[in-house]
C-alpha cells in the first residue's frame, strides 16, 4: 500500500473500521443536465440510496414508482416491487450500452446500472481501493484552488463496474479526496471532473456530502458550464 493511500484511509476512518461496515444509506438529491439529456428526469432526483460496502451492490428507492426500487450488481440490474418481487431485469447490463453516445437516451434499467455503479464507486471509496485487483500508484502533484493536491491513479479490475478502468483521485493536505478525473465509457467516453466537498464524519468514517461533476478540457481543467451532475447526501446512516 502506498503512503498516499495509507494517508487517505487513515483520514477516512482507517482500514479496520471500514472492514466492519456493512451498508451505508442516505437521502440523495440529484441535479444537473444529464438526467433530462438521457430522458430519465425525475426518477432518481429525490430518493434513498443504500450501498453495500463489502461487495458491489446498490439499491435506490423509490425508483420509477413509489413502491419500486432498483437493485444493482455488476452483472445484473433489476427493478423490483417492494411487495411483489422482480418486475424487470437485465443481465450483463454494460453490454446494452454498446454504441452509445452522450445523447443516447437510457432505459430505466440502464439508469439503474449507471446510478448503481456510480454511487457504489463514490460511497465505498477509499476502502474499495484495497479490493482484490485494484491497483494504485501516486502521480505528480497538481496545483488547484491555491493548493497543491497529491494525485492517486486508481486502476479497477473488470469485475468492479465503474466509469472507466483508470481514474485519478486528488488528495488535499488534510488527506481528503477532493477531485476525481474519469471518462464515462457507457456515454461515449466523455471526459469528466468531479469535485467532492462537505466531508462529514459519521460513525467513525468520513463521507463527502456534496459532489459536482463537469466536463473536462484538454488542459485537464473543469469546464464550468454546464453542471452535468450534482449529488447531495443527508440523513446518512452507517450499518
What key attributes describe this structure?
239 residues, mainly beta, 15% helix
Please give the alpha-carbon distance between the first and last residues: 26 Å
Radius of gyration, whole Å:
17 Å
Shape label: globular
Q: What does the oligomeric state look like here?
A: single chain
Beta-strand residue fraction? over 45%
Structural class: mainly beta
What is the helix/strand order? Answer: HHEHEEEEEHEEEEEEEE
Mean pLDDT: 97
Helix content: 10-25%
Number of strands: 14
Instruction: Extract low-pLDDT stretches.
Output: none
The number of helical runs is: 4
Task: Explain this structure.
- This protein is mainly beta.
- It contains 4 helices and 14 strands.
- The protein has helices spanning 3-11, 15-19, 34-37, 108-124; strands at residues 23-31, 46-52, 58-61, 68-73, 76-81, 85-91, 135-144, 147-155, 166-171, 177-184, 190-202, 205-216, 222-223, 229-238.
- Strands 1, 2, 3, 4, 5, 6, 7, 8, 9, 10, 11, 12, 13 and 14 form a 14-stranded antiparallel β-sheet that branches.
- The model has no long low-confidence stretch (mean pLDDT 97).
Amino acid at each position: 500500500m502506498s503512503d498516499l493511500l495509507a494517508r487517505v484511509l487513515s483520514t477516512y476512518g482507517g482500514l479496520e473500521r471500514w472492514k466492519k461496515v456493512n451498508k451505508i444509506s442516505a437521502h440523495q438529491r440529484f441535479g444537473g443536465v444529464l438526467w433530462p439529456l438521457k430522458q430519465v428526469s425525475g426518477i432518481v432526483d429525490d430518493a434513498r440510496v443504500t450501498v453495500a460496502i463489502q461487495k458491489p451492490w446498490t439499491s435506490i428507492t423509490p425508483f420509477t414508482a413509489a413502491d419500486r426500487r432498483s437493485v444493482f450488481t455488476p452483472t445484473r440490474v433489476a427493478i423490483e416491487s417492494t411487495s411483489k418481487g422482480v418486475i424487470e431485469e437485465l443481465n450483463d447490463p454494460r453490454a446494452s450500452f454498446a454504441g452509445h453516445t452522450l445523447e443516447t437516451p437510457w432505459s430505466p434499467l440502464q439508469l439503474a446500472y449507471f446510478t448503481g455503479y456510480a454511487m457504489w464507486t463514490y460511497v465505498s471509496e477509499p476502502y474499495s481501493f484495497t479490493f482484490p485487483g485494484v491497483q494504485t500508484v501516486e502521480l505528480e502533484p497538481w496545483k488547484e484552488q491555491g493548493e497543491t493536491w497529491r494525485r492517486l491513479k486508481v486502476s479497477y479490475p473488470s469485475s468492479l463496474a465503474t466509469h472507466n478502468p483508470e481514474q485519478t483521485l486528488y488528495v488535499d493536505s488534510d488527506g481528503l479526496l477532493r477531485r476525481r478525473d474519469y471518462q464515462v465509457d457507457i456515454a461515449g467516453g466523455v471526459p469528466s471532473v468531479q469535485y467532492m466537498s462537505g466531508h462529514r464524519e459519521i460513525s467513525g468514517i468520513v463521507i463527502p456530502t456534496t459532489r459536482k461533476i463537469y466536463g473536462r478540457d484538454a488542459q485537464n481543467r473543469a469546464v464550468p458550464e454546464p453542471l452535468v451532475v450534482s449529488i447531495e447526501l443527508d440523513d446518512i446512516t452507517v450499518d
